[in-house]
């Protein structure tokens, strides 16, 4: 090695250079390692699922696991489904004795109501109370309400209205009024930039992982199916995965939808491009040669998003406006889990300094904190719940030192 070469390698410049690919490995091999994006069924993580009928409202898809202890009632974010909690649920039930109840919010996943378009904060929070009563009756066990993003906002609305009489704690994941209200200005642009459709389930999972929407492949493989539906039949991806994985030949065929625009295929190497609109570019099969598998369907059988979030804009402000004050006013123990400390607004910064809630920041995760790092989130939440004596720890539990 020459003196000049040695100087470059040991300087700060070397840190900015691309990594050297070892001899014997081509550049193509070094950057295009193939992952298995095949979807996974819900029953690898939950012990049961039910469709809970709520009088004069509709049917709510509920996933459950755990046999004893208080109930962790989990609310997912906008556009996601209850399956976003799958890996977390498996982790948390191994650390503490509890029951997990995760349900698809109105307009999402496999829930079907008399008005799936009504996503107002009042309606969604009311649904939380009604689903809990349908499950447990008037003699409800202690409930810890946990919500992510939109689900976190709805959890706070439900808690502030005392819709769950047996509520003992509230945990909100990565939603803060100030930053949420600011982010709304660019939300339509973000939604229009997503692919409008996918050729198969594997491609949808691959896009979500490679685009960074969900950074944990294991979670994406079970979660993404709840976010999309087959265009020709309106059946959700989660329904299709369950039928295929359990060897059934046919899937129920609901009434087809007619209001989505499906575009022609593009080249496979443009998989991660998200330029365009909800009515713009689509994403085709992840296998460039078009090889068939159990999760690939004819070109006309494409997948679209389960919910058109662009049409829910009129409800966005109502989810988040006044959220910080409502959160701080909740009388039960509270916790806020964030992907970055910069997300705190003024009210929460003051409240945190006054010790009104516990806060934990997880670095190196995206917005889907509980999906990107389900084990760490489970550790943090288990420690919070054990500290407040909500739950009993199992032999697998190791206390995580609280952050602040």
**What is the helical fraction, as a range of percent?**
25-40%
How would you describe the shape?
globular
- State the assembly state of the protein chains: single chain
Which structural class do you get from the secondary structure elements? Answer: alpha/beta
N-to-C series of helices and strands: HHHEEEHEEEHEHEHHHHEHEHHEHEHHE
**Average of pLDDT:** 83
Measure the end-to-end span: 50 Å
Q: Flag low-confidence runs.
A: 4-32, 249-281, 283-299
Instruction: Count the E strands.
Output: 13
Radius of gyration: 22 Å
- Beta-strand portion reads 5-15%
Number of helices: 16
Please describe what this structure looks like.
The protein is built from 16 helices and 13 strands. Strands 1, 2, 3, 5, 6, 7, 8, 11 and 12 form a 9-stranded mixed sheet that branches. With 404 residues, it is α/β, with parallel strands linked by helices.
Short structural summary:
The chain is of the alpha/beta class and 404 residues long.
Write a concise keyword list for the protein shown above.
two-stranded antiparallel ribbon, 16 helices, nine-stranded mixed beta sheet, single chain, 404 residues, alpha/beta
